[in-house]
Amino acid sequence: xxxxxxxxxxxxxxxxxxxxxxxxxxxxxxxxxxxxxxxxxxxxxxxxxxxxxxxxxxxxxxxxxxxxxxxxxxxxxxxxxxxxxxxxxxxxxxxxxxxxxxxxxxxxxxxxxxxxxxxxxxxxxxxxxxxxxxxxxxxxxxxxxxxxxxxxxxxxxxxxxxxxxxxxxxxxxxxxxxxxxxxxxxxxxxxxxxxxxxxxxxxxxxxxxxxxxxxxxxxxxxxxxxxxxxxxxxxxxxxxxxxxxxxxxxxxxxxxxxxxxxxxxxxxxxxxxxxxxxxxxxxxxxxxxxxxxxxxxxxxxxxxxxxxxxxxxxxxxxxxxxxxxxxxxxxxxxxxxxxxxxxxxxxxxxxxxxxxx
Length: 357
Prior knowledge:
The protein is built from 9 helices and 7 strands. It has helices at residues 2-42, 55-79, 83-96, 114-162, 169-201, 213-223, 225-230, 248-264, 321-331, and strands spanning 209-212, 234-237, 243-246, 271-278, 282-290, 335-341, 344-352.
């Protein structure tokens, strides 16, 4: 509330500044016009009385002088006192042209005016956001191209090897299995990218229903049974029954991604645990696993597109899953956090029990 009042005061001061400039222009124009007429009378250029020239003629003459002087003074005002506006326009044109490194900076007296301070901060924040968005877009395209190219190159190379007539049946089977694995990986990657694109473009949460989130978590575990049983993972799951209002399909993606990551980054015979806690208004689902930790300097980056904290696992995913998780949770007006240390990594998803209309 205080920030809003401060913003209003700063903008009001900016309005007063421009109003004062306009008032001064008018005052100077009228004063100079009156002075010009007075001088004409003083030097008897327009006669010694009101008989030679009518009062109406004098008024018209003053109006013309005022207009001419007003135009001249306005031109000077735009050229000098209103120069900051020209600077702003030039900077905006630079942004529109794609120069996202441009920044607005006023010096001298202008810099001390609160309204211009807010204008400078807002403009520079906008330019910074555009610059960051452009960098993310470039990184996304580069990483996307690299991630898609890798399995395609593998499939192409293996297909060429299969043309060798001297291969044994066992070698052919190995190559075909490898091609199948890379094709599945490519398909999964495309599906994840399409899912991310869909949720990123979604502004409003739709298809909200009330359902049992505990049952949903058990279902996700069953879908991933082949993965955790293959690594002989021990599951710790003792869930009470909880109801939530949410988009069931979207949250299913969240929990599958988190459980899949927990299994993927766990060593053999490790432990994966799922826990639910609740308050009056919120539910928190925690998915934890023992094993490798996430380095502190990478905690803030793991929710970025195509980012992978451990390159050794890059063949098992494409770094899109957590970006999907974060966006879906945000659509539900919730939050996701991660803690990693002492051989334990915990992802916590906090969600409102009910979605406000």
